[in-house]
Structure formats: C-alpha cells, structure tokens
C-alpha cells in the first residue's frame, strides 16, 4: 500500500492528471471513499489530462458516463455505482465487456462486491482532520511497472 497526502481539491485533480499518463485500455481504477473525499475530483483531473475540455459531470445519476476519441485520447467509462443496490445490477451495465476497449474509472466499486475487479488499481480517499485528503493505493501486479505515479 502506498499513502499520499493531497493538500486540496487542486492537488487531487493534479494527481488524477498524473495518473492519466499511465492508464491504458483495459485498466480499472477503483475509487473508494466517503462522500466529498475527492473521487470525482480525481476522475476529473484524469479526464482533463486525457483531453476532455470543460468539467466532467458526476455520473451519479447516469451511472455510466462515456467518453470517446476525439473528445479524449482513450475511450473511458466514468462509472458511479453509488445508486446500485444489488451487485447483480452491474452485469446489466456490461462493464466487463467495456474493458476490451476502454478504461474504467469506477466510483463506489464496493457496491459491486468485494471480489469484483481484483486487478483494479484501488485508490482510497479519506478526509483528514485538517481538511486535506489522504490517498492510499492498492497496486495490483498489472500496475507495478507503472507505479508509483
């Protein structure tokens, strides 16, 4: 596990931008943390660094927000599973099929169950007592040559 401290929302977005230089099609980036911890900020930084102009909307209501070239350098699905109550609902989203040609950024991946996406880069964001954000990374084998960022 790797732990980092992110001073403010701009630092969280900047980390996402650094991460964008290392992602490739087939990757799953699983973002966990309480509401307001910075999951969407990190995703927005990544998407901006991949070329997205303007602010990416939170996919909370759409559940899956797709991005494709030329809007971004790589196809990306920004997924928010917060409103998913049953892990069986995830099968209907066809996210495993999407991995063949996209990067998945998944907020609230724990809603899929503990063993879903075992090869995901797991980034856990916490709100620290001083208002900064803590980021702890679970780095799977497929990321060891690309980590640390």
From TrEMBL:
Biological processes annotated in GO: tRNA threonylcarbamoyladenosine modification
Main localization category: cytoplasm
GO molecular function: ATP binding; metal ion binding
Entry's Gene Ontology cellular component terms: cytoplasm
Keywords: ATP-binding, Cytoplasm, Magnesium, Metal-binding, Nucleotide-binding, tRNA processing
Pfam family membership, one: TsaE
Domain of life: Bacteria
Localization per record: Cytoplasm
PANTHER family, per the entry: TRNA THREONYLCARBAMOYLADENOSINE BIOSYNTHESIS PROTEIN TSAE
Protein name as catalogued: tRNA threonylcarbamoyladenosine biosynthesis protein TsaE
Organism of provenance: Sphingomonas aerolata
């Amino acid at each position: 596990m790797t732990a980092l401290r992110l001073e403010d929302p701009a630092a969280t977005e900047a980390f996402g931008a650094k991460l964008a230089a290392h992602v490739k099609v087939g990757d799953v980036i699983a973002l966990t943390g309480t509401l307001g911890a910075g999951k969407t900020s990190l995703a927005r930084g990544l998407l901006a660094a991949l070329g997205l102009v303007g602010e990416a909307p939170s996919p909370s209501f759409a559940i899956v927000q797709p991005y494709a070239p030329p809007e971004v350098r790589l196809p990306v699905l920004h997924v928010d599973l917060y409103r998913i109550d049953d892990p069986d609902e995830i099968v209907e989203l066809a996210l495993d099929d999407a991995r063949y040609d996209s990067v998945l950024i998944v907020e609230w991946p724990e809603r899929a169950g503990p063993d879903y996406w075992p090869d995901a880069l797991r980034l856990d964001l916490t709100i620290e007592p001083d208002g900064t954000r803590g980021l702890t990374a679970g780095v799977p084998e497929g990321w060891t040559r690309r980590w640390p960022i």
